[in-house]
Amino acid sequence: MARRETEGRTGDSGGGSGGSGSGGGGRRERRRARAQEDRARQETLAATTAPADAPLVWGAGVGCRLLAVLWLGQLVLLSPFAYGTDLAGLTALEWLLRLWTLSVALWIFARLGAWRVTADRDGVAVPRLFTVERLPWDEVGKAVARRDGCVHVGSRITGPFLPAPLARLLRRPDGARAMADHLTIMVRNPGLRPTERADARTRVRPYAVWAPLPLAVLAAAHLLTG
Description:
The chain has helices at 2-48, 62-77, 92-113, 137-140, 164-170, 175-188, 212-225, and strands at residues 56-59, 116-120, 123-127, 132-136, 143-145, 151-153, 156-158. By secondary structure, the chain is α+β, with helices and mostly antiparallel strands.
């Protein structure tokens, strides 16, 4: 009797495993179908895209800049250095925590409103906090659009654009996918890459370059309320 029960449990376990495998196979099929769809779309784009002369630039649009302004507004209202606080009375730990909070807030502000990616004859330039990462074309690999509107370029994440679900709802172009597709076809087709290098107008700058603007706004707010 015990043997039959064991066999029954074994059979149930095997059936469950088969179901799990079937689910995994379904996911693999969906990923394969999406990859084929992406490849077909990118091949069509490559066939209809003319080679670029000037460097190609992607950057923060109106929506991103509006979000950056709103973020700056709440930063002014909820300043880490609260209005009327005796700064001389803060401990070293309190200074550290406030400066860390302010640094993160400034990074988010620049990340939203001042991001820029440039593709020129040498590769792709992606901003970082204090530096600019320049990826040669043979190191870019491929660009992949994410559902949240950001784009993987090599090992870096850039953006954001309008998230794909929201773009579909508003019947707006999917900017993240368009950028990822264009970068990918230039990786695969060297003849479609720009023939010029980025100049002062199209050059990418580190995020830290933009910190003085929100700092000036915060300083003005403190002076007016002081």
